[in-house]
Design goal:
By secondary structure, this protein is an alpha/beta fold. It is built from 17 helices and 20 strands. It has three domains: 234 residues, P-loop containing nucleotide triphosphate hydrolases (Rossmann fold); 169 residues, P-loop containing nucleotide triphosphate hydrolases (Rossmann fold); 71 residues, no CATH class. Helix 4 crosses helix 5.
């Protein structure tokens, strides 16, 4: 008589998992269990080993030691295809698919249905895609080119891909980082449906509100080791923070009072025909001016107009009371402005280059000798100073950015712009996708810079951040400034109401 499987046995069990890279111990003796019909949150600061663990599970890395059991059977994955065949799939922060192909082709890539003549069965593939999209309540068609979809819709395609081959284990790695509140609600509805179907979900996020909303269990890594696990219902945010960083962080937003000086930047009636209109505000020496708004409010677009990345159709920009002519980013840099973009990997840095080279990218002229060639000693000295001042954790100053955690990558991008010696610093979502310890470090850097007299614009979608760090808060709605709040009068309810087009 066959033995029935134990329903309490984990769908996925890792024991003693270890992985080393030259000079780095990424994982040491890690264990993890995922259960059918449950979501397990994987917690840890950037650099804790989460990405390495995910790459082992998806067949990109092979562990040096330890065991992986799927459905009670020990497995090893030499390639991503082997992990896929075992029922493991991953949905990443940035969707990894083919923009020029259709939705159906992306969903069935690698396992397309075929006819008896071994040709692709397009009719059957479209029909199966339509069924999957209907289950997810998707509002696009199987033949839609992927490049026409937004980030949230692309996540739906990845989930449909997982369902197309009956994946038992779904890994979600920061899936909500670029989503609006409504899109997050849609994603969590799908997660709940996956749980009802008996899938085991590994959910990675730095957002505690999401973790407590969607997860059933938690597992925490620190410095590549397992430091705790349990039920979400039995823990608190303070306890999880303590597990992640090894200490309590009483002040994630270390804003302190700084004497606000003279107006440094004045913007009058800045407009772009399709993105923003009548943007007018003042920014003072030593001030942190927050910009808040919902997705599509035009905050980043207005900042890019200020920096000369795009061309406003009208308006004036004054620095120290004198009109600045900014046609290209080089003009803004020469005028003492710097911009840390939201997307640090594709816009803020060249990740295949090292720390030293990245820090010099915006100010190459200052490290060039009389012959026009880079002075390596001068460049290294500046990289070492700025990297040390910002507490960048790296094996050496030529280490590639791809080998650094997200928080350390962000510090390098900030260092790159500080190397230009700016007087006005624009930070666009500076803590997006980084852990709570790195967030505190970036916030501390902001406070120190403001105390040194820099004028700072903080663009953020996170209410606690914009409320905790700003002296004043500009709220944008539908491409316009809806209201400017003094710090004392700003509340979460008032900011959200004004951002949504209502009254405070």
């Amino acid at each position: 008589m066959p033995v029935r499987p134990d329903p309490t046995e984990p769908v996925l069990a890792l024991t003693g998992l270890s992985k080393r890279f030259p000079g780095v111990r990424a994982l040491h003796g890690v264990h993890l269990a995922l259960h059918a019909g449950e979501t397990t949150a994987l917690l840890g600061e950037n650099g804790a080993g989460k990405s390495t663990l995910v790459k082992i599970l998806t067949g990109l890395y092979t562990p040096d030691a330890g065991a992986i059991r799927v459905g009670g059977v020990e497995r090893s994955f030499a390639t991503p295809r082997e992990a896929w065949a075992a029922g493991i799939t991953a949905i990443h922060q940035e969707p990894t698919m083919f923009d020029e192909l259709s939705v159906a082709e992306n969903i069935f890539m690698g396992h397309m249905p075929v006819t008896s003549r071994r040709l692709i069965d397009w009719t059957r593939m479209r029909e199966r895609t339509r069924q999957l999209l209907d289950r997810l309540e998707a509002d696009f068609a199987p033949d839609t080119p992927l490049k026409r979809l937004g980030v949230a819709q692309k996540h739906m395609v990845e989930i449909a891909r997982a369902l197309s081959h009956d994946a038992r284990i779904v890994i979600m790695d920061e899936p909500t980082a670029a989503l609006s509140a409504r899109e997050i609600d849609d994603l969590f509805r799908i997660v709940a449906d996956l749980k009802r179907q008996g899938r085991a979900i590994l959910f990675i996020s730095h957002k505690f509100d999401e973790i407590f909303r969607i997860a059933d269990r938690w597992t925490c890594l620190r410095d590549g080791t397992h430091v705790g696990e349990g039920l979400i219902a039995d823990t608190s945010e303070a306890e999880l923070v303590r597990r992640m960083v090894g200490r309590s962080i009483d002040q994630v937003f270390p804003k302190r009072s700084v004497a606000i000086g003279k107006p440094m930047l004045e913007v009058e009636g800045l407009a772009n025909a399709t993105e923003y209109a009548d943007i007018s505000f003042r920014l003072h020496e030593g001030e942190i001016l927050g910009f808040y708004g919902l997705v599509g409010a035009g905050r980043s677009e207005a900042m890019q107009g200020l920096m000369g990345i795009t061309r406003p159709s009208r308006g004036r920009i004054l620095i120290d009371g004198k009109e600045a002519r900014i046609a290209v980013p080089a003009d803004a840099i020469a005028a003492g402005m710097a911009y840390v973009p939201e997307d640090r990997q594709s816009q803020g840095a060249v990740t295949q280059l090292g720390i030293r080279e990245n820090i010099s990218l915006a100010s190459l002229g200052t490290v060039a000798g009389g012959t026009g060639f880079i002075d390596y000693v001068r460049e290294l000295g500046r990289a070492r100073k700025l990297g040390t001042d910002l507490a960048v954790k790296a094996a050496h100053w030529d280490q590639k950015l791809t080998e650094l955690s997200g928080g350390n990558q962000q510090k390098v991008v900030i260092a790159k712009w500080l190397a230009t010696e700016p007087r006005i610093l624009i930070l666009d979502e500076p803590t997006k996708g980084i852990d709570i310890g790195s967030k505190a470090a970036v916030h501390s850097i902001m406070v120190d810079l403001a105390a040194a007299g820099l004028a700072i614009i903080l663009v953020s979608s996170e209410l606690p951040e914009v409320l905790g760090m700003s002296d004043r808060i500009v709220v944008m709605s539908e491409g316009r400034i809806a209201r400017i709040f003094d710090h004392a009068e700003a509340t979460p309810e008032a900011l959200v109401s004004v951002a949504a087009g209502g009254a405070a």
